[in-house]
From TrEMBL:
Pfam families: ExbD (PF02472). Belongs to the ExbD/TolR family. GO terms for molecular function: transmembrane transporter activity. Its main location: membrane. It is found in: Cell membrane. GO terms for biological process: protein transport. GO terms for cellular component: plasma membrane. It is a single-pass membrane protein; Single-pass type II membrane protein. This is Biopolymer transport protein ExbD/TolR. Keywords: Cell membrane, Membrane, Protein transport, Transmembrane, Transmembrane helix, Transport. The chain crosses the membrane at residues 12-32.
């Protein structure tokens, strides 16, 4: 005698998926709490950007300046720096400077004795 098996619906799998989605949304909500409604962010659109005083500035035409004074080349600049300043050298490139020139300058600074070359850029928020 054959018994008819009742076909079970996959409700357990559906409950598991809904439970996992619930946990995901709860975790996502706690990771990024909303900003306070009365908070106003600082506006920097009108600020004039200036390079830090201890950074090597590379202009669009390839000229180098340090603290407003012209620098002849990367090797001579690194040679004049104290040992602590050579560990991390800050570089501010012009946006119009070709990337190949920037890479070439970074390599020259490293060969001249700079431990780490850090590029200072403008950060924009969406």
């Amino acid at each position: 005698m054959k018994t008819d098996r009742t076909r079970r619906e996959p409700t357990i799998a559906l409950i598991n998926i809904i439970f996992l989605m619930l946990i995901f949304f709860m975790a996502a909500a706690t990771l990024a709490p909303p900003l306070a409604q009365d908070l106003r962010l600082v506006r920097t659109a009108e600020l004039e950007g200036t390079a830090p005083p201890d950074a090597l500035v590379v202009h669009a035409d390839g000229r180098l300046t340090y603290r407003g004074a012209p620098v002849s080349d990367a090797a001579s600049h690194v040679a004049t720096l104290p040992e602590t300043a050579r560990a991390t050298l800050r570089l501010v490139p012009d946006a119009a400077l070709p990337a190949t020139d920037l890479l070439r300058l970074g390599e020259a600074l490293r060969r001249a004795g700079a431990g780490r070359v850090v590029m200072i850029t403008e950060r924009g928020l969406p």
